[in-house]
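Schema walk-through. Below, the input block comes first and the output block second. Nothing else is stored per chain. Lengths vary across the set, and this one has 302 residues.
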Amino acid sequence: MAKSILSRYLNPEVLSRISGRRIEPRGLVIGNLAGAHKSPLSGFAVEFAGHREYVWGDDPKHIDWRVYFTRERYFVKQYEMETNLVCHFVLDTSASMRYGRQQQQKLRYASQMIAALGYAIIHQSDKVSLATFDEKIRGVVPPSNSMAQILRMTELLDQCEPVHKTAMSDCLTELAGRMKRREVVMIFSDLFTDLDLLETALQQMRYQRHEVVLFQIMHRDELHFEFDQMTKFVGLEMPDELLAQPDQIRQAYLRAVQRHNDELETLCQRNRIERVLVDTSLDMGTVLVDYLNQRSRLNRGR
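--- output ---
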């Protein structure tokens, strides 16, 4: 049973293509284990960060005697600690994510991306968690860096039923209230939601100094509207239907989508949030490799 669930979400070819690529946080992180990422806390290990004046109770072995002979005052050396990354995956399981067939269905594609990224992060000894939501938070898998975490996550993903509307901003606000440390939050959604309310929720995460990444999951039909004959369009979250000739509404639809995406991009830039537009018709291995390469370049250049 466990193997069959894992096989639905973990593609060996995708895993092999992202193998060995580290996922580093953009800023300093705070964790509770020694790891490979810089922490904003100071300690007495790893890499020299600076000095502070000696206070009673400090270990004398950390006194910098060269500074003492220069300034005739006691200073202790401080070092940057390295710590573990915690990455929270947040998945929109509302009805609009049901669009698409087989591997190109938005929910399925996003779920497989989460499983692959989660596997890669755990493989580098860091922690991942998963939360699913629509009108409310449906399921949560707390952070862990055990390989058994992947099975727990895929079991939750397998239970997702995209049939409800979304209350994205409320759910993100609630989840932000549960995140106490400075961590990485990766949100997977088509982002068909009120952007003003979304920004308020995202600003709370940014105020808490979390790094936020929005993976905007869209089907090719939504991006390019390549329908060529009379089509009935049925709402997935609203009971509306529209019978239309695609040629007559294509330009208006594409303008509306472009306007929404432009506003979303402006929102992200304003709040220093990374946005990744994902077309589910594209090879997932290529999408992830391109994203991780870009992330690595930006990290080197910061």
